[in-house]
What does this fold into?
Amino acid sequence: MPARLTQMTNAVQIGGLLHTTVCHRSTAEAVEQLVPFVEEGLRAHDDVVVNLTTERVAHLVAQLGDDAERVRWCDTHHWHPHPARRLRAIQELADDVACHGRGRLRFIGECAFSAGSPQLLAEWERFDAVLNHALVGAPISLVCTYDLQQLAPEVVERARCSHPHIGLLPPVENEDYLPPADYLAQRRGAPLPVPAEAVRLSGRPTPLDARALVHEVLGGAGIGRQKVDDMAVAVTEVVTNAWQAGARRVEVACWYVDGEAGVQVDDDGPGLRDPLAGYRRPAPSDERGRGLWIARQLADALDVWPHDCGTALRLRLFDAAP
It folds into this structure.
């Protein structure tokens, strides 16, 4: 076996999660780096899943020849092209591999940055960081590819902070890596102002009141019945969480402005301090923790801003989002 593959094998057999990033300036450069990783996985009888653009998938298939039939292929713009839902899908793949004892899952993917609304960029960046939390201990080698020709330099620079390893031949430890909670806390940003057009409920609105507000404000916005229903369920979960956490007062604001449907829930409770809350899929035995996870699955973007007097949580849907 070539020395570079021996080094790579040692890296991916460490047990648990290996999360690395591969940068490239062309499809040919990406294929050159990825083919040895795929071939090594097939020799080890690992499950190999490749989730890239149609163009890059086609080039990899051609390079692998008959071996391509042993790989599961999917297009990043069609396979769960939403950060929270893709996170859940990768968790399910890893669970399936672990349950059936088929070695490791080798997953090659790229974020669907160019799909849907540009406002989803921050959600995709958070997704890349949260993988290190949600998949910790899972038997998976996860390779994230970044196209240097298409992505802004600052996006690539931030990716250096969300990947524990860099490269494949072999993967090396990344000195710039930040643990998921630190990364999310640094990327939280300042609270956004609620649009003046928002319709508000304040005092002690029930989850049912919040749900009715969403249907009232967004029902005629033309964003689709299913998305309105999804937002209504999400805000029900968030308001329920606020009251269960000990809030004495809750305010709900809802709007549709410039192609964005939004709901913000402000409460005066103890404050949601954990930046990773709602990202890791709850276990069947968990008595709590499902509400925020459900909300993340249903909204296109979800921001949490804890403050001295409680928490502001914003759910958003975008017209162009998948």
Remarks:
- Residues 1-14 have pLDDT under 50 and may be disordered.
